[in-house]
Amino acid sequence: MRLVAATHNPGKVPEIAALLDGNYEIVTAGELNLPEPDETETTFGGNAMLKARHAARLSGEVSLADDSGLSVLALDGAPSIFSARWAGPSKDFALAMRKVEERLEEIGSTDRRAWFTSALAVAWPDGPCVVVEGEVHGELTFPPRGTRGFGYDPIFIPEGFDQTFGEMEPAAKDAMSHRARAFAKFKAALID
Ligand code: ITT
Questions:
Q1: What whole-number distance in Å separates Cα of residue 81 and Cα of residue 126?
Q2: Which residues contact 54 (CB under 8 A, 6 or more apart)?
Q3: Residue 138's Cα: distance from chain center in Å?
Q4: Distance of alpha carbon 73 from its chain centroid, rounded?
Q5: Confidence class of residue 191 from pLDDT cuts 50, 70 and 90?
């Protein structure tokens, strides 16, 4: 079965493909030249549904979207749904990671607790849309470490590990990431 991955973020695509266990033929919104919708909702779940419905409506195919981000406890949960926007139009995540570090310095906080959230939405054309959410908690480290993954991976160490997501093998991240946990909930919901 073919599934539209309603994302324009190339970092997410291999993770989505791996988490679907190779069971679907994936075509991305970018490959279908679908325009990116404005993320106007105020929650991860709202934005995930908006992106999945948008892609399903335009493609006429079942579409899956991920809306995700990093939340820092000492920053009252920021950047959260604004995680991509902190990197600016040039999608400069070195800049976004520095911004997180600078904000923590500005408030003089040594609390490095943070978590990633992934809301996963699947929309059927002219049909329902379901959404589930996964989280992984951990702590931040500066300067960034590792070149794997994408986005904020080089500054995030998941609980119980010594390596950042940027240093881990992709399979290790996929075994317990926020995205993996959202996928696990989705699979459980389909089977139960
Ligand atoms: P699409 O909306 O096209 O999927 P996007 O990058 O704009 O792409 P989001 O709005 O969901 O996606 O923004 C999520 C941002 O949060 C993303 O750009 C990353 O910087 C960050 N992020 C999400 N999941 C991450 C992960 O697993 N590792 C590192 N950073 C992540």
A1: 27
A2: 6, 34, 37
A3: 15
A4: 18
A5: low
Of 164, 141, 191, 151, the C-alpha closest to 67 is: 151
- Structure tokens, 119: 């809301």
- Mutating to test ligand 1, I would choose from 152, 174, 179 the residue with most ligand atoms within 8 A of its C-beta, which is 152
Q: What six digits make up the tokens of 108?
A: 């003089």
**Tokens (6 digits) for 117:** 């959230």
- pLDDT for position 86: 98
ipTM above 0.85, yes or no: yes
What residue ranges line ligand 1, CB within 6 angstroms? 7-9, 12, 39, 51, 66-70, 83-84, 93, 116, 149-153, 165, 177, 179
What pTM was estimated for this model as a whole?
A: 0.97
Spatial distance between the Cα atoms of 121 and 61, rounded to a whole number of angstroms: 14
Q: Residue 117 and residue 71: Cα distance in Å, rounded?
A: 8
Q: What is the CA radius of gyration of the chain?
A: 16
Nearest of 130, 118, 138, 134 to residue 44 by alpha carbon: 118
Closest atom of ligand 1 relative to the 39 alpha carbon: 10
Residue of minimum CA distance from atom 21 in ligand 1: 69
